[in-house]
């Protein structure tokens, strides 16, 4: 059996590092690119990502680099793991560096910062004609790096690419499933961060398990409605990248977005909460983007709307809750 070609993982934060470790653990030569030379030098010096995943040592076949051209040279498959606000700019940088047959995948969760659209639309507009895929699902980076059992979804309109990526990642405790619903997988990965803020706020206010379960369930209904408006397969939201990721992010304190909600529900100011978390909190930007997307498609998303009001418009958390509970009764389905 021929050796798997080298792969490039772009983004040397916790998530990119964890996925690079999975690939390297499966015997694939991985080039882990980071935009910050000082951070990349620290990765080389320490033999691990001491900032985010200090207990996960790099194997010999994982090479950190701050050279984008060097990371991409001769590579067939590229996996992007940068935050959503940096996604479009990186895609533009990639264009002149990619080999003709290179395929693009991303594990970034969120919407495109400038347009508020889905990430595959950014790739299609700037790198037309290439095979594309998205990886998403219930997966905290620290647990992936530690080799704990994890299942994710890889969605692509190109079944061969999805199968190749699944084969590259499948091994040990990491199990990918394949799908063709890129829209649904992307949407689930984006909106769950907004809903995690809602459940965090409720728990920060001490509102109990009933409230948390209600927010998760009605939040899932909001994702499904938006997905239907955008042409997604509703079954996707019952899977790993939908309800699976939603439950994980809304209920475990490893989630930065849930921790933001906990802080806000406990009365902390937004800026102080973000500073204490110390990493990108995708939900602040995504809440505004989901709000705009829902308005564009005339989709009712009251929980997401109230999260947007709290994190972007300064509305008190208690007032947001009161608005939700004051809504008129209606049929569940």
Task: Describe the protein in words.
The chain is of the alpha/beta class. The protein has two domains: 174 residues, NAD(P)-binding Rossmann-like Domain (Rossmann fold), CATH 3.40.50; 143 residues, N-(1-d-carboxylethyl)-l-norvaline Dehydrogenase, domain 2, CATH 1.10.1040. The protein is 51% helix and 13% strand. The chain has an eight-stranded mixed beta sheet, with helices on both faces. A two-stranded antiparallel ribbon has the order 3-4. The protein is globular, with a radius of gyration of 20 Å. It starts with 6 loop residues before the first strand and ends in an 8-residue tail after the last helix. The relative contact order is 0.11.
Short description:
This protein is of the alpha/beta class and 333 residues long. It has helices at residues 14-25, 37-46, 68-72, 87-94, 119-126, 141-145, 159-169, 182-204, 208-229, 240-251, 256-265, 270-277, 282-296, 302-313, 317-325, and strands spanning 7-10, 30-33, 48-49, 53-57, 62-65, 77-80, 103-106, 132-136, 150-155, 174-179. It folds into 2 domains: 7-180, 3-Layer(aba) Sandwich (Rossmann fold), CATH 3.40.50; 183-325, Orthogonal Bundle (N-(1-d-carboxylethyl)-l-norvaline Dehydrogenase, domain 2).
